[in-house]
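hiii so um. not sure if this is the right channel but i have a protein structure encoded as tokens and i wanna go backwards to a sequence. like what aa goes where. can anyone help
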């Protein structure tokens, strides 16, 4: 959603909601890393060897990508979301909504919009890739031996 809020001038007033969503995602990734680390220690003690080491290592870094998402969304807000909010209509444009009503949309320069878009797309892509890596390593840690010990139908 951060990307959509950044691209569409009409949606830019919603950027604070994207920041809030990214804060929730960051907090969730931190909680998952903490609880996963504790579970990993507990299972490793019971097994007498480290369990899902790669998954734990990758998962412990995931909150950093959440921080990156929050920083990128805040920078996008500063670059394009606040433009022209000084109480006058200067720096804002009035656009017609589909129902014919007028609304004010923040106006930002093309370079500011492009920079904001590069930041949010880059942070989103990096976080998505890392989340995939964490999940894939966890699935392999759980299922790899089970699948290797089964026969194909």
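sure thing!! here u go:
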């Amino acid at each position: 959603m951060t990307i959509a809020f950044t691209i569409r001038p009409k949606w830019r007033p919603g950027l604070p909601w994207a920041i809030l969503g990214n804060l929730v995602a960051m907090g969730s990734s931190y909680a998952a890393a903490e609880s996963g680390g504790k579970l990993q220690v507990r299972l490793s003690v019971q097994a007498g060897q480290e369990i899902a080491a790669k998954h734990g290592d990758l998962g412990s870094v995931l909150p950093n990508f959440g921080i990156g998402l929050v920083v990128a969304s805040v920078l996008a807000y500063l670059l394009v979301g606040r433009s022209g909010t000084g109480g006058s209509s200067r720096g804002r444009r009035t656009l017609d909504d589909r129902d014919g009503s007028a609304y004010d949309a923040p106006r930002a320069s093309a370079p500011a919009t492009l920079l904001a878009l590069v930041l949010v797309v880059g942070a989103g892509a990096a976080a998505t890739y890392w989340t995939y890596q964490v999940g894939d390593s966890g699935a392999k840690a759980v299922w790899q031996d089970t699948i290797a010990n089964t026969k194909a139908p």
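oh and Helices lie at 2-7, 15-47, 53-81, 110-148.
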